Amino acid sequence: MQPAIFLGLDLAWSERNPSGLAALDENGAVLDYRADLVDFDDILGWVRAHARPTCVLGIDMPTIVPNASGTRRCESELRAEFHRAHAGPHPANRSRPDFRDGGRARRLLDALAPDGFTERLELEPRAPGRFAFEVFPHPAHVRLFGRQTIFRYKKKSGRSWQAVWAEWAEYRAALAGLATADPALRMPADIPAEIREKSQAYKRAEDILDALTCAYIAAFAWRWGTAGPHVRVFGNRAEGYILIPDVPAVRGTDAANRHEERPSGLYEPEGPHRSS
To answer: What are phi and psi of 241, to 5 degrees?
Structure first.
């Protein structure tokens, strides 16, 4: 029987911007990664080209947005739990241009339905089939690595490139540490340990790590199932949901002791659910 494969999409909300994509096999090897696809059909084709009989797809973009305005309940619930870690998502609703038709993630999953992909939130460990979930890297990082706060690798006003590069390197090192986890992720050697790029070149490096996180969340949900305690689903299939790991990936991690909690100040969502 062909081994399972796990795909991660850091899907840009806008049709104009490139998305990050990554493929991870059952043994933790990264089979492919890229951050240059913009066209919807190209992204759809990439998923179909990598899909196997057992394939789990983790998408960092809202897949179910029934609300005309405001915030989905799953976003409010997740923000309430993770606000001190600055790990809340941006709100998605039908008043936003990116979601008037349901959004790119919804269209992607509708296009993949004939290929056997379903959003099934009650998943048994190692279940055969093709599944897809909405995932969110920031709270996943907090849980997987036992952190007090998110990685602050997003370039924002007032955040220097030196600070952003340092956070990216820490993020990359944390993913590399998953080589000993269950499931594993073995970081490709050609993704450098540090980066000194700016603007679009940096955005590509950022999107690649986020796509790897999405693929790893998919692998984690398939390995342990969604019933808990390893995985948690905020929300539901009718109103929208977000799936995240809920325990450290490496048991006995002391990551929480290595990251002092920073003053929360005013709450500000950091993505990667993004409108860019």
So the answer is: -150, 165
Containing 180, the helix (H) or strand (E) segment is none
CB 9 within 8 A of CB 211: yes
Amino acid identity of 228? G
> Which runs of consecutive H residues, i.e. helices, occur in 11-118?
40-50, 73-82, 104-112
Which pLDDT value is given to residue 176? 98
97 token code pair: 């241009």
pLDDT tens string 35-72: 999 999 999 999 999 999 999 999 999 999 999 999 99
Give the residue among 102, 119, 148 at the shortest CA–CA distance from 243.
Answer: 119
The ranges of the chain with pLDDT < 70 are 252-276
CA distance linking residue 241 with residue 65, whole number of Å: 9
Decide: residue 82, CB within 10 A, 0-12 exposed, 13-18 middle, 19+ buried: buried
CA separation (Å) from 236 to 42, 122, 164, 239? 30, 11, 34, 6
Give the sign of the dihedral formed by CA 123, CA 126, CA 130, CA 132: positive
Per-state percent for the chain, helix, strand, coil, to nearest 5: 35, 15, 45
Q: Is the dihedral of CA 178, 264, 9, 155 positive or negative?
A: negative
User: Distance (Å, rounded) from C-alpha 3 to C-alpha 52?
Assistant: 8
Please return the burial class of 88, using the count of CB atoms within 10 Å of its CB with bins 0-12, 13-18 and 19+. buried
**pLDDT for the residue numbered 61:** 98
